[in-house]
Amino acid sequence: MATKEATNGSNTTNGECKITRPPPTPSPLRFSKFFQANLRILVTGGAGFIGSHLVDKLMENEKNEVIVADNYFTGSKDNLKKWIGHPRFELIRHDVTEPLLVEVDQIYHLACPASPIFYKYNPVKTIKTNVMGTMNMLGLAKRVGARILLTSTSEVYGDPLEHPQTEEYWGNVNPIGVRSCYDEGKRVAETLMFDYHRQHGIEIRIARIFNTYGPRMNIDDGRVVSNFIAQALRGEPLTVQKPGTQTRSFCYVSDMVNGLIKLMEGPSTGPINIGNPGEFTMLELAENVKELINPEIELKMVENTPDDPRQRKPNITKAKEILGWEPKVTLREGLPLMEEDFRQRLAIPKKGAI
Ligand SMILES: NC(=O)c1ccc[n+]([C@@H]2O[C@H](COP(=O)([O-])OP(=O)(O)OC[C@H]3O[C@@H](n4cnc5c(N)ncnc54)[C@H](O)[C@@H]3O)[C@@H](O)[C@H]2O)c1
User: Please, is 122 exposed, middle or buried when counting C-beta atoms within 10 Å of its C-beta (0-12, 13-18, 19+)?
Assistant: First the structure.
């Protein structure tokens, strides 16, 4: 399987994508004897939830030099505080809708608000971030010969008519709805990645990320796991959107980060689904959180938001076969780790703890 999608070679899901030019020459810095690190890596959106965990993992490798570019819209310097001042780390306040000039070998392009509350707050900015931001990062990749990975999303499948979703499925997306700035924005970002790949030979990687959870998620950002945990800790009812039978699959952030790095290092352009196929209804998730944090808490059914997909579950056959990746952390193992982080940030100690 892996050989079918050779590095920078013809792609992928339907065999139609052929590159027409050789890849650009890598940055001369790669070969400089003064260049101490093996790899200089840019992480856009690196101050956010997934980005900051990715930075932690990349920084573990002493051969890596990591540059984060972030406008702090939904991210925070606090997520990176242990690296600020480190000789192999650099943090730049930068909005990806503007061009950026840095000499790098790899670009993990994550910059984009991921929670509906934030991406709907300024939808025009969201689509600009997806389209102009991705063009700017592809322009940079072209100039310096870097490999670029885009964190796309399961939202490109919209309200899917196929279940579970394979990478070949083209999706069922509303182009003019309130979520479209994000869903369609990511779809255009994927298109741009493949156009730069075919036209300019850029080495691309596309990850289609399914719901991810873990420490450092924004509290009160409206995403279901963070919502339930914060509500349970505060002793508030867990607000389950109707009908409660809609499903999601939740991937713990350390699994996600390992998947992204394997994709970047691996042979395939993707798109590749990265997520946990364990599927839960919203009611089941609420019951799990209730049992873990406060069995006395109530569940309250509330109206749903428009275009909320009814079911979401990744088919991860490609990730398994091509990347040798599959998630390891179950929801029952991951939720307590997130509870601990939220308790610290909300200053709500566990009963009986000093
Ligand atoms: N968390 C998930 O469940 C999930 C699911 C699917 C896809 N994704 C994708 O993964 C990526 C990271 O998601 P996350 O959950 O860490 O979200 P996040 O909101 O915590 O992180 C996004 C980061 O991007 C930064 N950012 C936003 N707009 C920017 C801009 N114009 N210029 C520079 N920086 C900007 C934010 O400040 C933040 O630090 C996003 O691309 C998202 O679409 C996440």
Answer: middle
**pLDDT in 10s for each residue of the chain, 354 residues:** 333 333 444 444 444 455 566 766 766 655 655 555 579 999 999 999 999 999 999 999 988 999 999 999 999 999 999 999 999 999 999 999 999 999 999 999 999 999 888 999 999 999 999 999 999 999 999 999 999 999 999 999 998 888 888 999 999 999 999 999 999 999 999 999 999 999 999 999 999 999 999 999 998 788 899 999 999 999 999 999 988 998 888 999 999 999 999 999 999 999 999 999 998 999 999 999 999 998 999 999 998 877 677 777 899 999 999 999 999 999 999 999 999 999 999 998 887 655
Options 3.90.980.10, 3.40.50.10350, 3.40.50.720, 3.40.50.11540; CATH of 2-212+252-275+316-327: 3.40.50.720
352 Cα–ligand 1 center, Å: 36
From atom 35 of ligand 1, which residue's Cα is the shortest distance away? 111
Distances 100 to 90, 143, 157 between C-alpha atoms, Å: 14, 11, 30
Atom of ligand 1 nearest to the CA of 251: 3
Enumerate the β-bridge partners of residue 108: 43, 149
- What are the extents of the domains in the chain? 2-212+252-275+316-327
Ligand 1 atom 19: the closest Cα is on which residue?
113
Q: Which of 50, 190, 285 to mutate to test the pocket of ligand 1 (most atoms within 8 A of CB)?
A: 50
Please give the structure tokens belonging to residue 47: 């101050």
